[in-house]
C-alpha cells in the first residue's frame, strides 16, 4: 500500500515522543547552564603545572628540562630555564622555569606533554568555559595561572593522582635510602682512609671520597 | 514604477542554454568547505567539477617535520569523526616500519574502539544523508543520540570525545578498566534495538525510495577502475573488505559478514551502512567476549625518540569510509623522511561527476551525501 512506509516511520517517531515521558534513556539532553553533566575522570583539555605545599613558586615540580617543549606537536609551550637552582622533592638541586607559558589557543589537548614529563610536573585540567575578550594575553597562560596545587589534582583525577602520589613517595624513599647508603659508604671509606698508613692518604682515591656526601645531602621538604 | 517592473522582460533561459553554478564552499550540504562547479542545462547537470583544498592544513609536511609520536594527535584531525581508526592506520604503518609487536589485549581493544567508531560514523552519516534529502532533524537527532553514547565511552576511556589520541605504536596509551568494558557490553546489547528503530523510521518510506533508487548509479567496473573503496565499493557489488583481505589486527578471529549491494545507487549505499552497523555489533559482541587480560603496551617500545631503520612501510586499514593508508619512508632519523596519507574520502570523491551527470541538481546533494566525505581528510 502506498504510504505504508511513511506511516511506519511516523509510528516510530510517535513511540519516541511518548517514550520520552516514561523512559529516561530517550531523554538525553540537559538544560546546560543550570544543569551540567559530570565529566569522566579521564577527561582532559588543557595542561597545568603541579606544585606541592602551600607556595606555588617554591613547590613547583617543574625542573625546566624542556622535554615537553620539544615534544609538543603544535609547539605551544615556551620555557626559559632559571640561572640558579633549588632542591626538588628528593633534595637534589634542580633548575626551575623562570618563564613557563602555554598558549592555549594553540594547544590541541593531546596530552603528550603529560606522557613525556619525567617529573610528574604537568597534568591535564578539566576546566571549560574559558572564553575571554582578550584573544592575545587572555589565552596565553603564564606560570602563575598554570600552577595548581596537588590537592586540586587529587580532586579532578582521583585515581590517577593516587597512583602518582604513591609512586612519588616510593621514589623519594628510594632516593633517601640511596643517599643515606652513599653517605654511609663515604664515611666508611673516609674512616678506612684515616686508619690506613699516610702513603694511602695522598692517593686521589682517598681524597675524592670524603668530598662526595656534601653533594647528595638530604634536605627534608 | 510598478508598471515598469511588470513590463520588464522576465529572464527565461533559451533551449540549450547553459548556466554555471558554484555550489559551495558555504553550501550547507557539502559536509564542510567543498565546492562543486556545476554546469546546468535547465535543472540537468551536464558537467561537474569538484574543487577542494579549502581545509588544507599541511598535515603531511607537519608530520614529516615532527617526531613519530607527535604525528598521532594530528591524525585525529584527518577524519575528525573517526579519530580511533585514523590512529590505528598510522600506528600500524609505524609498527611495520619499526618491526614492533602489539600485545593481545591491545589488539582486541583496538578492534572494539574501531568498531564503535564505525558504528557512530555510519549512524551519523545516515542522519546527514537523510537530512540532505529533506528529512529535517528527526533522523539526525536519533543518530546523534546514539553517537553521543559512543563518544561518552571514548571520553571516559581516552579523555576526549572526538580527538582521542588513544593508540600508540606498540599498544595503547591507557588500559580499559573492567567498568568501562561492562559499560560497552551494556551499550552493545542496546545497539541492535537502535538499528531496528533507525531502519523502521525511513527504510520503507516511499519518498525516500523514489529519491534514492536508481539515483547516482556507480557501475562496478568504474568503481574498481577509480579505486573506490569501502561501503561505496561494496554497494556496487564488489566483495572487497580489508578486514577480510588483510586480516590485520585480530580480525581473522571474528565471524562476520560483508554486506554487498547490487545496483550501486544511493539506496544501496544507504542500506550498506545500515547492514554494516549490524555486522559491527556482531564483531563487538565477539571481541568483548574473547578479550584477554594482560598489558596493553609493549614495554620495550620507545615512544619518545623512536628511530626506525631506513626503509618504507604502508599500513592500511578498513576505516568506516574505505581504505585508509599511511605510507612512511624512514631515513633512520627521528622523523619520517616521507609521510603520505591515502584518504578514502578523497579518492571516493573523484568519481562524483560520473555519478551526477544527467541528474537533477537536487540529486547532486544526496549523491554527495552518500559518498560519505569528511573534508578534513579530503584536504588534509
The name of the CATH architecture of one domain in chain A is 2-Layer Sandwich
CATH class of one domain in chain A: Alpha Beta
N-to-C order of helices and strands of chain B = HEEEHHHHHEEHHHHHHEEEHHHH
Give the helix tally of chain A: 8
CATH superfamily of chain B: Cytochrome-c3 Hydrogenase, chain B
User: Percent of residues of chain A in helical segments?
Assistant: 25-40%
Chain-averaged pLDDT of chain B: 86
What is the C-alpha radius of gyration of chain A, as a whole number of Å?
A: 28 Å
* β-sheet strand percentage of chain B: 5-15%
Largest interface: A-B, 32 and 40 residues
What would you say about this model in short?
The complex is a heterodimer of chains A (221) and B (380). With 221 residues, chain A is α+β, with helices and mostly antiparallel strands. Chain A has a 3-stranded mixed β-sheet with strand order 4-1-6.
Could you describe the 3D structure shown?
The complex is a heterodimer of chains A (221) and B (380). Chain A is of the alpha+beta class and 221 residues long. Among the domains of chain A are: 47-156, Alpha-Beta Plaits (2-Layer Sandwich); 174-214. Chain A contains 8 helices and 6 strands. Chain A has helices at residues 4-22, 67-71, 112-116, 143-146, 150-156, 158-195, 198-201, 204-208; strands at residues 47-51, 77-87, 93-103, 122-124, 140-141, 147-149. In chain A, the strands form 2 sheets. Chain A has a 3-stranded mixed sheet with strand order 4-1-6. Chain A has a 3-stranded antiparallel sheet with strand order 2-3-5. In chain A, helix 5 packs across helix 6. Chain A is elongated, with a radius of gyration of 28 Å. Chain A starts with a helix and ends in a 13-residue tail after the last helix. The relative contact order of chain A is 0.13. The model of chain A is unreliable at 200-221 (pLDDT under 50). Chain B is globular. Chain B has one domain: Orthogonal Bundle (Cytochrome-c3 Hydrogenase, chain B), CATH 1.10.645. Chain B has a 3-stranded antiparallel sheet. A 3-stranded antiparallel sheet of chain B has the order 6-7-8. In chain B, strands 4-5 form a two-stranded antiparallel ribbon. Chain B has 380 residues and is α+β, with helices and mostly antiparallel strands. Chain A binds chain B through residues 2-6, 8-9, 11-13, 16, 25-26, 28, 39-44, 67, 71-73, 108-112, 115-116, 124, and chain B through 62, 66-67, 69-74, 76-77, 138, 142, 145, 148, 152, 155-160, 163, 165, 173-174, 190, 197, 200-209, 303-304.
